Amino acid sequence: MKKRILYMLFLGVLVIGLVGCGNNSSEEESSSKSKESVKEKEDENVTFLDYDRATEFNDGVAVVSKTENFESTYYVIDEDFNVLFSYKGNQEFVGSYIKIPAKDDEKQINILDKNGEVVYSYDDKEYKKKVELVSNGLLVITEQTDTYNSSKTVTGIYDLESKKYVLEPDEKYKDKIREYGDFMLTLNNDYTEFFNTRTKKVVKFSEPVQREFVDGYSLEEDYRDNEIYVLVYDDSGNKKEIKTLYKSVGSIKNHSNGMLFDAEMRIVMENYNEKITGENVQLFDLKNGTVKDLSKFFIFVEKPKFNKDGNALVRFSNQGGETYYTVIDKNGEMLFEPVKRNNEASFGAESNEVPLIVKEDTLYDGGYFIGEEDSLSKVIDKNNKVVVTSDDKDETFESITNNSIIVKLKKPGSKEISYYKDLEGNKINLKIHGDLKEYN
Prior knowledge:
Elements: H1 2-44, E1 46-48, E2 61-68, E3 71-78, E4 83-88, E5 97-101, E6 108-113, E7 118-123, E8 129-134, E9 138-147, E10 150-159, E11 164-170, E12 178-179, E13 184-186, E14 193-196, E15 201-204, E16 217-224, E17 227-234, E18 239-243, E19 259-270, E20 273-285, E21 290-293, E22 312-317, E23 323-328, E24 339-340, E25 368-373, E26 376-381, E27 386-389, E28 395-401, E29 404-409, E30 417-422, E31 431-433
Antiparallel strand pairs: 1-31, 2-3, 3-4, 5-6, 6-7, 8-9, 9-10, 10-11, 12-13, 13-14, 14-15, 16-17, 17-18, 19-20, 20-21, 22-23, 23-24, 25-26, 26-27, 28-29, 29-30
């Protein structure tokens, strides 16, 4: 009897378990169908933008456009290639902000963020008020206030993000504040006091800074005691000196991302004639205040610039006129042995029958440069590996931005257009989620 009861209980538990399993299976199927349904709805809610001109990304955004009947509509996209909003007019973004008239009242000027939201507004006809949009979401605002027996004009710097002045308005800044290279504003006429728009701090020097800032630095030469020094002023207010290895620095204006690659021909007199015996090549690290001699590696260099990753594409020739290229790091070390390139671009050069043409010395962020071979564009990485090749001769790779290629397409009988491709050669779709937000 007890065995029979236990057996019946076992059967009951088994049935309940089976029913439970059946319910779980049904719930999983239901959940799976629900997720698929949501995805379908999401896909239905996404459309793709038809555009004919692509541009480089800056501060997290790019502006593409579509021109029809000689009128252009501009579309703001983010780094994931989502379309944020559209606008009309010739205004351009400064970083991730744009200054643009209101649609229904051109006297009203709006500052929009990258999402098309109005973050600041003023009346352009407002009595003696001037607003200038500068880098990193800052406004240089000048206002005149009057009473019956006084008049006062002040200028200050207003931060759109914090919605407050980061440099309080003062009469001493009137007609003094202007852009001075990358992310720096002058605060006086002596060029000794600046405002750094990235750190939002005042920067002071004990002596004038003669050249505009590039990628955080301003450089000057100083001749004394029969030596030449490179004076390095950084955007935090520091100064250092680097003693040069040779008696001239011809590339002082061409520094980039904290590095200066200088190359000057070495000329001697022989029987009253000038003779080129080589080239003096020195690599300056502006942050560390060091210099390295690269003269034994390079001659007749085409003045390379460093990218943000700390590498540079170097194009140069040897004594016999053969042209080469390589990529170096901040220490001047080559990432690969120099490779021959086509030399037909060199004035008066004979063809060396090397098919690869490297037209420019730009090494884009991420470590890529653009070449051409048999009329096809190629993206090549910093280790000299071909990443992607254009589909045909009508496609030309223009630049590389946000890990994507800006491609120019010109087919016979058609207008020229440009668009983005990824680094695998696939055209990138620009996604519109829901209804497109239109500013005007």
